[in-house]
Amino acid sequence: MFRGNRRLYWRGSPEHLEARAAGLVERLPPPTPAPPAAVQEAQVLVGHPLPGLLRRLYLEVGNGGFGPGYGILGVRGGHGDDYGRTAIDLDRTWGTPEGLVAICYWGCAIYSLVDCTDRQARMWGCDPNPAPEGISPLFREPLTLGQWLGRWIEGRLQQPWLLEDPATGTWRGATDEDFARLGMGEV
């Protein structure tokens, strides 16, 4: 696939591996962990402690930029969405329920969020694209943060998707069965 003057490859594809062996693929810079003060500031702004796993990722792996979609969103000074907004910027501007923090940007205004008020660190999705007026684009997903990251590592994580249930007509988040039925994943 071409974009501008650069060729883009799906990471891990035969074309990507061939281009990498030929020295045509620039390596990504190593992630830089978030400063402890930025993580502490985020917790103060959210009003709740960040889930332990997320806090460790920020402090030990990087201030976002890795992970599913367009990457985990960082805290102050870290990776942002296509408008440069970090997880905390979004938390303060969206008006989401208390304790929900956007941690992953998927493109097209779709985000994954983590509930910092929940000891299990349950995940939520936000997909405003098909939502008719009066329908919240936010929905709870049946995963904890640990399960969500595990699915990403296994290559089985799907982006949040709001859909209208064909049987009931209600709007809800897509299930594994919905993705499988449409040939977009396995059950």
Give unreliable regions as ranges: none
Q: Count helical runs.
A: 6
Structural class, from secondary structure content? alpha+beta
Count the E strands: 8
Q: Rough shape?
A: globular
Radius of gyration based on Cα positions: 18 Å
How far apart, in Å, are the first and last alpha carbons?
30 Å
Question: What do these coordinates show?
Answer:
The longest helix is centred in the N-terminal third of the chain and has 11 residues. This protein starts with a strand and ends in a 6-residue tail after the last helix. The strands form three sheets. It has a four-stranded antiparallel β-sheet. A two-stranded antiparallel sheet has the order 1-2. The protein is built from six helices and eight strands. Strand 3 and strand 4 form a beta hairpin. It has about 190 residues and is α+β, with helices and mostly antiparallel strands. The chain is globular and about 55 Å long.
